[in-house]
Amino acid sequence: MPDPTPSYTPLTWDDTGKRIYETGVDRGVLYVYDSETSWYGNGVAWNGLTNVSESPSGAEPTPLYADNIKYLNLISNEEFGATVEAYTYPDEFAECDGSAEIATGVAIGQQKRKTFALAYRTKIGNDTDGNDHGYKIHLIYGCTAAPTEKGYGTINDSPEAITFSWEISTTPIEVTGYKPTACITIDSTKVNNDTKMKALEAKLYGTTEAPPTIPTIAQLLTIFSPGNG
Length: 229
What we know:
By secondary structure, the protein is mostly beta strands. It has three helices and 17 strands. It has helices at residues 188-191, 194-205, 217-223, and strands at residues 21-34, 39-40, 44-46, 49-54, 57-58, 61-66, 69-75, 78-79, 81-86, 100-103, 106-108, 116-126, 130-146, 164-170, 173-175, 178-181, 183-187. The strands form five sheets. Strands 1, 2, 3, 4, 9, 12, 13, 14 and 17 form a nine-stranded antiparallel beta sheet that branches. It has a two-stranded antiparallel ribbon with strand order 5-8. The chain has a two-stranded antiparallel sheet with strand order 6-7. The two termini are 43 Å apart. The relative contact order is 0.18. The model has no long low-confidence stretch (mean pLDDT 90).
């Protein structure tokens, strides 16, 4: 018998529960690189995190012409950068910002900047669950902070807290079967497995049995493998 006529579903827009948006940033964690272990050390909470602006660059086409036609486009490598803003930062970040403590409470600047990794969470909302629909965990590897301006002003009748800001550049890490990357995002609404997300969060944030650490690619694949959880 011939195959039945295929049936298709027309496109629709703005269905209930599908009006998705992203908002917020919280649960920042800093992991400073440890040259002795060749990986990042134990994480520390980054309080006062106000904004993380991801800013990829590159991936620009270079057109080549031959035979009087546009022959092809060569695409440059993509680089991942970010801007981090906060009201404060962990003491451990001072080494990443070019400071060194020469005596208790005495710091000098213009020193070698340590590499670090960063984890933070953003919220996923929709029209039915509000901001509690889900969340994304962002992992940024191979980070280096560039010197940035710090503006101090007098206290007046409209006092404001100083906002610190850092431009972040990255060096990507190897991912088997893919191009190297510096940015990994885990979407709870797509993982759709609470056990796996809790395992990742236990790794990132620590437990009473283990310190907070940022996972390697191999550890991430183990956590989110189909047979796990």
